[in-house]
Write a structure and sequence with these properties.
The structure holds two protein chains of two kinds. By secondary structure, chain A is an all-alpha fold. Chain A contains nine helices and no strands. In chain A, helix 4 packs antiparallel against helix 5 and helix 5 packs antiparallel against helix 7. The radius of gyration of chain B is 23 Å and the shape is rod-shaped. Classes of the chains: A mainly alpha, B mainly alpha.
């Protein structure tokens, strides 16, 4: 068990492994993304209440879920970095921040484009929207903090503390629709009784969710490889690795 | 032909649906592109470093 953990803490091992896995994830992601788009935009019927505007959920929901998932990954790896000083955990957290910020931006942007025709407004300061906006600021704050502090060790630790503290926002986002009386609709898919969505709409949505997940891991692995190279460029294994 | 026009009109919501998808994929592709660029730069720097170390050893 410890040997296994040790291997995943070893930069050369992770560098080589992610180099092999990333292309597979990329191709799978592309196939699922195109399938999901076809099923969602062409095959799925229009909604009887919302017409075709509901199709925005095929990017909105996956992006919103990923915005929270990526943050949890970032907070957990930041905690691992703070407790065990594991360099790779810091690389994972740093690599996740811009991807998570992008997903958060997409969730806010697509939600706004759906809200205009459906709610009659681009934006309301309700609990769900406000806490999601706060999530975007947490991501941007993390990135800004890392860039602002010159000493890399101090920058990594300070940003990690921000990431860990900010994780309290995640349950707030998730439960905001239950805790407060908000305009944003409550969960449709993750509720415990049977999902209230027709399979022809649910299928493309789930495919897009998996595709977004794969996109994150693909992108993460590529960025983690860069992070390893940047930090380990003085190491002998890097020179050896680049020779062949 | 009519069905294609119908498809692009998105039941009158074209102004909202298409920008949502367009911006989403612009951001996602941009993300992948920046990731790939960062990796290219990191590779180049590491290679340069490896060459320097090698020549200083000779």
């Amino acid at each position: 068990m410890f040997k296994w953990i040790h291997r995943f803490g070893s930069p050369p091992f992770v560098y080589r492994l992610s180099g092999r896995i990333a292309p597979v994830l990329g191709v799978l992601c592309l196939i699922l993304m195109l399938t999901g788009l076809y099923l969602g935009l062409v095959v799925a019927p229009a909604d009887y209440e919302q017409g075709d505007s509901y199709r925005i959920i095929f990017v909105h929901v996956p992006a919103a879920w990923m915005s929270m998932f990526v943050y949890v990954v970032m907070a957990v790896s930041s905690a691992i970095f703070l407790i065990w000083k594991m360099k790779l955990a810091d690389i994972v957290a740093q690599a996740s921040a811009p991807i998570g910020a992008s997903f958060t931006f997409i969730a806010l942007m697509s939600g706004s484009l759906w809200g205009k025709p459906m709610w009659g407004t681009w934006w309301v300061w309700d609990a769900r929207l406000t806490s999601e906006l706060l999530l975007l600021f947490l991501y941007l704050g993390y990135i800004a903090l890392r860039n602002a502090i010159e000493h890399p060790q101090l920058a990594a630790r300070t940003a990690a503390i921000l990431a860990v503290v900010g994780v309290v926002n995640i349950p707030i986002i998730h439960f905001s629709v239950d805790w407060w009386n908000t305009l944003h609709q409550p969960a449709t898919i993750t509720k415990f009784d049977k999902p209230s969505m027709h399979p022809s709409m649910l299928k493309p949505l789930l495919i897009m969710v998996v595709a977004f997940q794969l996109l994150y891991f693909y992108n993460l692995l590529v960025r983690v490889r860069s992070g390893i190279l940047q930090r380990e460029k003085r190491a002998a294994w890097v020179a050896k690795e680049l020779e062949n | 032909m009519e069905s294609i026009a119908q498809f692009f009109s998105m039941g009158g919501y074209a102004l909202y649906v298409w920008p949502a998808f367009f911006i989403t994929f612009l951001v996602l592709i941009g993300n992948v592109w920046f990731g790939a660029r960062e990796h290219r730069i990191a590779l180049r720097d590491a290679k340069r470093r490896a060459v320097q170390v090698k020549s200083s050893q000779e």
